[in-house]
Specification:
- By secondary structure, this protein is mainly α.
- It has a domain of about 220 residues.
- It contains 18 helices and two strands.
- A two-stranded parallel ribbon has the order 1-2.
- Helix 10 packs parallel to helix 12 and helix 12 packs parallel to helix 14.
- The two termini are about 40 Å apart.
Length: about 400
Amino acid sequence: MANTLSGVFRNYLLSTSISRINKLGVLSDYAPGLRKLYAKATLGIPAFQEQRERIQHQMKNISDKFREKMSEYTSDDSKNMIFTEDLKNMIYISQDDKDIELVIKMMKRYNTQNKSLRFGNFIFGPVIMRLFYIHNKPELALECFKSDELSVSFDQLMSYQILLDLLYENKKYKEILEVANIIKAKQIEGSITPKNVVVLVLAACYKLKSKESFDYAIKLWSDLQNTGHQPMRRAVTFCAALALNQDRPDIALEVLSTCKNQNYTTIRNLKILALCSIGRIEEVIPILKSVLNEDTPSVISQVHTFNRDVIERIRESVKSSDNPEVALEFNRLEEVFKKQGNITENTLDDQLCSEIQQPPIRSNRDFVPRQQFQNRQQPNDSFQTRRPSYRRPGLADLV
């Protein structure tokens, strides 16, 4: 299958006469009220907020004096050191832009101090990114990530995910691709392919819906396939949907074939759209009929559904096919689906971009020591990297 994918993508990349018109007209712009991709719990936001409340309560009577002291410690002529607990406390009591500015100054001072005095393993990257997240500071988060003084502080997969999700929520899709390029350039030693990063990058490409973003997505996808990457289902659906929007159902079908479970609702709906687009409506009917054997009508949550806009697209294709047998069977199936609740009013776009719910990542792969970035010899520009050495994971990454 990898060879087939590579062949299709190679033919695409060499082609100069691809149509840029989206003829499907079903993958509309994402509803403003459904912007989030990853739920807050997957980013560790609730735990961070709980810790903020505890620290703010503990420092209620001394927080103002503490701020004044930290401001003095970060002045140019000060020789005082910023300790780990100082920085942690300042992050948790930060309330406004002035406090966040002080946190950044403290972080810079903290990074330049004598590293021999640091004996703890507290990782600040994800924590500071969560601070930017709850204050909705995408520009500042990106600026700090790109800063030479601070960039090493955010070399954790969770930091990447929080930053990219924050950019996604603020519709800064081009900036997501910029961050992705920086991550690839770093070639993280000691880490596996960051699957959540891939999902967010492909989500940004899908949102951009441009020829350029499609080229970017296909190049990334081809690289990942060549390195044996097993994509998450959401990555598959974003890439396939983008291919459909760029009038490349052939690529969409090949991308969808990489998903191990073909029974997912989004996979099934996208495959139907691709088949309709290439005029193979007779192959859609078996896909429609397959859910009748899988559903358990007594348990509503187990009913397999088709999106209303996908059903409408099938109806158009059936009509244009001028095949009485196919039309008769489709009409029969549609009536059954209406009775059994197999048709949802949600659009396919709504479903593709629905919020991802999953437990926060607790892994030793979150942390990557700085020295591991140096002397990188492998030229491959994909996200694929080598297996990490073991580091005992702690709760610090989540609080």
